[in-house]
Amino acid sequence: MDEIRHLHVRPMSRRSFLVTAGNLGIGVAFGGLLRPALGAVMARAATGDFRPNAWVTIAADGIVSIMSPASEMGQGIMTTLPLLIAEEMDADWDRVRIVQAPSDAETYGNPGFYGVQLTGGSESTRGYYDLLRLAGAQTRKIILASAAGLLRVPASELITGPGQVVHRPSGRTLGYGEIAATATLPDPLPQATAADLKPAGQWRYIGRRDILRIDVPSKVDGRAIYGMDIQRPEMLYGAVLRPPVQGERPEAIDDAEARAVPGIIRILPLSYGVGIIGETVEATKRAKDLLKVTWSTSSRVRRYTSDRLIEDYRMTAGDIGRDGVTAYSEGDAASAIAGAATVIEADYMSDHVAHATMEPMNATALVTGDRVEIWAPTQGPTGTQHFAAGVIGTTPDKVTVHTTLLGGGFGRKAEADFIVDAVSLARDVEGRPVKVIWSREDDIRHDKYRPLAAQHLQAGLDRDGNIVGWRHRIAADSIFARTMPELFERQGGHDDVVTEGAHVNYALPTHRIDYLRQDNGLDVGFWFAVGVGYTRFGVECFIDEIAAARGIDPVDLRLELLRDQPRARHVVETAARMSGWTRPRAGRALGIAYSDAFGSHCAQVAEVSLDRASGAIRVHKVWCAVDPGVAIQPRHIEAMIMVGITNGTSQALFEQINVVDGEVQETNFDTYRVIRMSEAPDIEVAVVPMAGSPVGGMGQAGLPPVGPAIANAVARLTGGVRLRHYPFLPERVLKALSA
Fold first, then answer.
1. Global model pTM greater than 0.85
2. At 605, which helix (H) or strand (E)?
């Protein structure tokens, strides 16, 4: 699988890391907390290459291979993370090859995700940033020590340049390949601390706009290997028929016609559906369509109708007397609001949305005895190991995961249902690999949707219009109750990914957030920006409503509330200036919104128009100013922001999953409406990092502000008509106009 390999935790604190490579251990310390190396010192890996640590291998020809521990799903992380190592070790980027890290959390786990291999939450760069820079600095010190031995000079007389070591007094040089060919690793190994990291002024690669993503050329010329592209010797194909209502089981299966389809090898009942194994994709699809299954009718999801439940959620969130779990509390918000001169309150709702990744769910599995090998576009190799092990009754260390490129993820491919499909079917034909491919209809109807959510916001103002109390109540189902039940219980029934984004950095003297869990049986999951995507909708629209009540400009109110937040003020001021905030537009209006989610500050202004006859909103342009803390790859940041804005516009205007009596009504892109190219706004992005700031996450930072910016623009355009329910469907807009 060289095509994948070359496209291509242990728990660690932020201040102390240990990098290991098999039986080679490299101690890496941060902040002066030194830890000893583990295991024997080796000069080179079994291939004969020079391997300073688990992250870097240097060949005799000077090619440097760097591990990429995260899943590449279009966000450019396969370039960003290795670039950090290359920067600190002074590799020649033109001679760097990127290798997808194997499934090995002990070595390649993300410190930001409890040491597991998991890509999501805009946590890859934030989680690995310190670790990988230190690994690069450690590598550089090992190279210098090895070169000193070869040249028989003090290491203090040596410096590094791109791919080479230079002896300053004599001008002699050694290429990294020459060192790799002959050197042995020093014993003891040099230690790296924060003092060894390059200052920003010496960066060669970080911050440059001309470093291109390494995954793009293979995607352009067709060499890229996605999960859908996997081919293995003697491979079979699989499909699973799932029940129309989640949680039902097959009670009777009439498979006579299905078994008669040429090429069908097995049809087997599963606890959650019916599996089909065949020699071709077409055969499994045909057989699946011919199955006649009597499903159980006992699932409580049969009582799930989203239109009815969202109204129940709204009433629950608005019932101040109903207790929830306190997610955050500062001061006595309830008393402050009760004694306020003016109280403003509003409800905001958001429907289910589907991930609808361009590459549907798929996985290939091979079961041999108690061992499993998997090829999959997964965001979570560690989770994949554990779920696969559970299917066949083995241990995770006997499961090997080859992570391919992902044709989109957005949180969906952190799930394991498609992995379980492949392993379950492969177990039945032990010794032959089985590739399971979900149809688009399967993908839409059996997704793990963003939670249905209702929010009630209250603010108390004093006689001068100052906010004295702020209360935010969120009614929604829990993601963690299903995916991380032990954590959910430890947190007292609080799901901080569902309420994420409600805790704001506005100056609020009293502030309380309550979570009211709703449990109606339907599985919900992590969807692009998850809670922030709807909580900031509520927060930022509510800020505009307060500004309107006070009769002041929405930008001015935000700047007032962000008076102690220089990074936040900067992006708000920059976005307003970019858009020409105060300039009137004929038939159009501007709206603004701000977010500090994922450690990045992001302000956006949307320019919209409205067809009052049809209720259709058109977003013409979005201006965005973003401060990522450290702009590792500015062009890629701009691209990720554009993705977030486009997705955010799509979910704000179009995307909606409707569930009626437990059955999902949408089946494909003809009924699950997403934004079209002709509807995408023009986007202008300014990357404005503030020096000395910590690195922020960028994968999802662009989505949260755009929806509220659109709603706020509509309010300015219509003289105060408020849109409070995602998505802003034309019929909802018309209803708001007529209210």
1. yes
2. strand 601-610
